[in-house]
Amino acid sequence: MRVEYGSAEKDGSPDLDEAWLADGWLALFRTWLADAQRAGLVEPNAMVLATVAAGRPVSRSVLCKGVDETGITFFTNYESAKGAELAAVPYASVTFPWYQLGRQVHIRAR
Questions:
Q1: Where is each Pyridoxamine 5'-phosphate oxidase N-terminal domain found (predicted)?
Q2: For residues 16 and 87, is the Cβ–Cβ distance under 8 A?
Q3: Where exactly are the structural domains of the chain?
Q4: What is the pTM of this model?
Q5: Structural contact between residues 46 and 33, judged by C-beta atoms closer than 8 angstroms
Q6: What's the pLDDT score for residue 16?
Q7: I want to staple 45 with a disulfide (CB 3.0 to 4.6 A). Which of 10, 26, 29, 64 is the partner?
Q8: Rounded mean pLDDT for each run of 10 residues along the chain, 110 residues in total
Q9: Between β-strands 46-53 and 56-63, what pairing exists: parallel, antiparallel or unpaired?
Q10: Contact status, residue 49 vs residue 59, Cβ threshold 8 Å
């Protein structure tokens, strides 16, 4: 099943403009997160966290508890699989999929 959420051609929304990053990625992220909350998206702070286990990628959905200049905060048990994976390979990526808004944010970090 495929759901059409719209596109710049169909709904007149602007393409991504690099000028939006003039105040940095964090300011734009906060604006987009607020947009997702105002739009009534279910769990707008949900993100897909990708880690590495035994040389292979592993993804799961988790809730973002905060974002600031130092990074993204989410809660996990350090003894969980994702905790062990991050301890072994301290790199991860997250994606915030806001499909209904035609947006997503992808962040890679240590």
A1: 34-110
A2: no
A3: 43-110
A4: 0.83
A5: no
A6: 78
A7: 64
A8: 54 75 94 97 98 96 94 90 94 97 94
A9: antiparallel
A10: yes
Token digits of residue 100: 């209904």
Cα(101)–Cα(7) distance, integer angstroms: 9
Cα–Cα nearest to 68, from 19, 102, 24, 16:
24
- Alpha carbon of 65 to those of 46, 49, 62, 102: distances in Å? 9, 13, 9, 23
Which has the closest alpha carbon to 85: 65, 58, 61?
58
Which of 58, 60, 73 lies closest to 109 in space, CA to CA? 73
Q: What is the DSSP letter of 17?
A: -
Quote the CA–CA distance of 29 and 87 in Å, as a whole number. Answer: 27
43-110 fold: Pnp Oxidase; Chain A (2.30.110)
Residue 5's pLDDT is what? Answer: 55
Task: Indicate the residue type of 75.
Answer: F
